[in-house]
Design goal:
Blueprint (H helix, E strand, L loop, with lengths): L2 E3 L4 E2 L6 E3 L3 E3 L4 E4 L8 E3 L4 E2 L4 E3 L2 E3 L4 E2 L4 E2 L3 E3 L4 E2 L4 E2 L3 E3 L4 E2 L4 E2 L4 E2 L4 E2 L4 E2 L16 E2 L4 E2 L4 E2 L4 E2 L4 E2 L4 E2 L7 E4 L4 E4 L10 H6 L10
Parallel strand pairs: 1-4, 2-5, 3-6, 4-7, 5-8, 6-9, 7-10, 8-11, 9-12, 10-13, 11-14, 12-15, 13-16, 14-17, 15-18, 16-19, 18-21, 19-22, 20-23, 21-24, 22-25, 23-26, 25-27
Antiparallel strand pairs: 27-28
The structure holds coenzyme A.
Length: 222
């Protein structure tokens, strides 16, 4: 088992629990196992993780193998992330949410609590997920969005509380999605309106593009 922890990697302090798999590369100034009140379990990260400086990952969070994480990513507690997930810089995952396998999340994305992202989903830069329709005006529980397998969300889109984006759907840049999007549907505009997928496109994201796309800044660079 080998961990490449660069100098001055911080833990969350006394009592911190981190379980890290083999062949991790963790930059300086990363906080793993960040403690919060009433935490119960460690931060668990699988094999071959790459985690860049400025990132903070709380306890009670589980992440699979081959996790690639950019700079200044915040992942709060009770988060579950699958294998082969990429999360780019300045993205925030609030606590209590789920991300599947083979998901790519670009920079400056906000995933609020109770969001569910299934497998092979692409989330473009600056996408915002919401979970409360009338914030601070009602006692109902938060309602996160659900993005089904193989869907793609364009940059700057806003996904409203409780919305389901069907499998293979494509959301246009800047859309405000306030209704469920049927599977394999194109949705764009404010509010988003529905159209057929362009005929030449496959019915869902191509796994080879999500899993093997060249990373000009990471360890896959020749
Ligand atoms: C929504 C999208 C998939 C549509 O592509 P398309 O089906 O090829 O559509 P077209 O470019 O032919 O445009 C069709 C019409 O929709 C409009 N339109 C296209 N994208 C739009 C968008 N995001 N919001 C509002 N209107 C849009 C076009 O202006 C055009 O209108 P017109 O017929 O009145 O001229 C694409 O424009 C898009 O937003 N892709 C997401 C890109 C992205 O965020 N990538 C992130 C990785 S960097």
């Amino acid at each position: 088992m080998s961990h490449v922890f660069h100098e001055s990697v911080c833990s969350g302090g006394p009592g911190t629990a981190v379980q890290m798999g083999c062949h991790a590369e963790v930059d300086p100034n990363v906080q793993l196992g960040y403690l919060y009140p009433n935490w119960t379990g460690p931060t668990v990260i699988g094999n071959e993780a790459t985690i860049r400086s400025g990132t903070v990952i709380y306890t009670d969070t589980t992440i699979g193998d081959r996790f690639t994480c950019g700079h200044h990513v915040t992942i709060r507690a009770r988060v579950s992330i699958g294998n082969d997930v990429v999360i780019l810089h300045q993205t925030t995952l609030e606590g209590n949410l789920r991300v599947g396998n083979g998901v790519k999340i670009m920079a400056h994305v906000y995933l609020c609590s109770a969001t569910q992202i299934d497998d092979l989903v692409f989330i473009g830069p600056g996408v915002t997920f919401l979970n409360s329709k009338y914030p601070m005006r009602e006692h109902t529980p938060v309602q996160g969005a659900h993005v089904e397998t193989g869907a793609s969300i364009g940059g700057g889109a806003t996904i409203c509380p409780g919305v389901t984006i069907g499998h293979g759907a494509i959301i246009g840049a800047g859309a405000v999605v306030n209704k469920d999007v049927p599977p394999q549907t194109l949705a764009y505009g404010v509010p988003a309106r529905f159209h057929p997928l362009p005929e030449n496109l496959p019915e869902e994201n191509l796994s080879e593009l999500l899993l093997n796309s060249p990373d000009l800044w990471g360890k896959k660079m020749p």
